[in-house]
């Protein structure tokens, strides 16, 4: 039992903090709200003020969404203070997603996507 | 037991919730968290399929995407985004309260989360009913329910046989039949993906509300302590994932 206790003790006071303070949660939330306003503002500007290419608009919107996701995953979902194994799982989800998107779209584009309008509707 | 200090007692004593196959509460919590993440990865891949279809068809029909997105209710969706982000904060604070053993605060945060979740679904439900009301020829959901002010519908954005995308140019006849059908299918694909993605998301919200209600009942029955609050933690993980899905759905469908 003594060994187990020592192990648990070491784990508890390991290199990582096992606690995120409430202040951090409020700051992360404030950052999320700012990013939310930014993404809507970028969309409004692009619709009403200046014409920007579609790919740039998508890149801006997706960059903001990814930034929000990183904040939520690291702080709200505690991945920042989780074990290395959990971090690998969390990162793995996004790696698989990128494999899905890149290989599928690579195949589509290599075969000529979008297709030419054929004789049938 | 009497000789150990208070701090050690805090760190090492455990209640009946420690299952026999685990050596320490920390190990049990670690296993539960990892298991939840494994499940969340499959959830991300489930939504990933819809996002994949979205990418392929937006690539093919960029104009149809832009025209269709203009017909969605962006102000309501913006309100919903705020509602979900606030609910993510209340969940994070609920986990924090459970960690610190503050029962009253935990219950407050869980109730707030449930209220915000229901608010999201009510707003989403209104958005859906707007689209269905248009198919029935009503101006808005209220006149659809009361049956007043019904006329021939000029817009039906629910995919299916009745799908009708409003024509801005006014002319429907002429030799552009094939071209029109092609864009119509682009518009219909947008709304098919819109209803599939937001519908699947709404189903997850309903399940999330069930999870939160269960955790609330457990909290009311004093099932949690600073050494055991795993259900709050992993239930919170699920809720945050639903929030992340919406973080992507919002710009992809409403801000095209």
Automatic annotation (TrEMBL), chain A:
InterPro entries: Caa3_sub_IV (IPR011743), Cyt_c_oxidase_su4_prok (IPR005171). Keywords: Cell membrane, Membrane, Transmembrane, Transmembrane helix. The chain crosses the membrane at residues 25-44, 56-76, 88-110. It is found in: Cell membrane. It comes from Chloroflexus islandicus. This is Oxidase. GO terms for cellular component: plasma membrane. It is a multi-pass membrane protein. The keyword Cell membrane applies. Its main location: membrane.
From TrEMBL, chain B:
It is a multi-pass membrane protein. Residues 34-256 form the Heme-copper oxidase subunit III family profile domain. The chain crosses the membrane at residues 34-57, 69-94, 106-123, 189-217, 237-255. GO terms for molecular function: cytochrome-c oxidase activity. GO terms for cellular component: plasma membrane. Residues 1-17 have a biased composition (Basic and acidic residues). GO terms for biological process: aerobic electron transport chain. It holds the Pfam family COX3. InterPro entries: Cyt_c/ubiquinol_Oxase_su3, Cyt_c_oxidase-like_su3, Cyt_c_oxidase_su3-like_sf, Cyt_c_oxidase_su3_a-hlx. This is Cytochrome C oxidase subunit III.
């Amino acid at each position: 039992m003594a060994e187990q206790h020592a192990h648990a003790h070491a784990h508890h006071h390991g290199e990582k903090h096992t606690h995120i303070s409430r202040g951090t949660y409020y700051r992360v939330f404030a950052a999320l709200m700012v990013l939310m306003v930014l993404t809507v503002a970028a969309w409004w500007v692009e619709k009403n003020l200046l014409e920007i290419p579609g790919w740039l608009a998508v890149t801006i919107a997706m960059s903001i969404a990814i930034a929000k996701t990183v904040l939520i995953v690291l702080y709200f979902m505690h991945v920042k203070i989780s074990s290395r194994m959990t971090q690998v799982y969390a990162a793995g989800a996004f790696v698989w997603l990128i494999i899905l998107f890149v290989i599928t779209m690579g195949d589509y584009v290599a075969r000529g996507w979008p297709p030419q309008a054929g004789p049938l509707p | 037991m009497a000789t150990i200090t208070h701090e050690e007692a805090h760190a090492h004593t455990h209640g009946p919730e420690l299952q026999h196959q685990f050596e320490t509460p920390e190990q049990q919590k670690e296993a539960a968290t990892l298991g939840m993440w494994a499940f969340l990865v499959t959830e991300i891949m489930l939504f990933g399929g819809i996002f994949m279809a979205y990418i392929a068809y937006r690539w093919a029909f960029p104009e149809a995407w832009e025209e269709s997105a203009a017909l969605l209710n962006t102000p309501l969706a913006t309100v919903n985004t705020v509602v979900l982000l606030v609910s993510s904060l209340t969940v994070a604070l609920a986990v924090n309260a459970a960690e610190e053993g503050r029962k009253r605060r935990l219950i407050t945060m869980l109730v707030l989360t449930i209220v915000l979740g229901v608010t999201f679904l009510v707003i989403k439900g209104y958005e859906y009913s707007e689209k269905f009301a248009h198919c029935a020829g009503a101006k808005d959901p209220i006149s659809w329910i009361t049956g007043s002010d019904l006329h021939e519908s000029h817009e039906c954005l629910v995919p299916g046989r009745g799908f009708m995308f409003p024509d801005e140019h006014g002319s429907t006849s002429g030799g552009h039949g094939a071209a029109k059908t092609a864009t119509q299918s682009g518009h219909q694909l947008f709304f098919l993906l819109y209803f599939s993605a937001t519908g699947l998301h709404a189903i997850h919200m309903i399940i999330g509300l069930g999870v939160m209600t269960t955790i609330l009942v457990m909290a009311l029955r004093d099932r949690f302590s600073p050494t055991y609050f795993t259900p709050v933690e992993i239930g919170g993980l699920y809720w945050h994932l639903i929030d992340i899905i919406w973080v992507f759905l919002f710009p992809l469908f409403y801000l095209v």
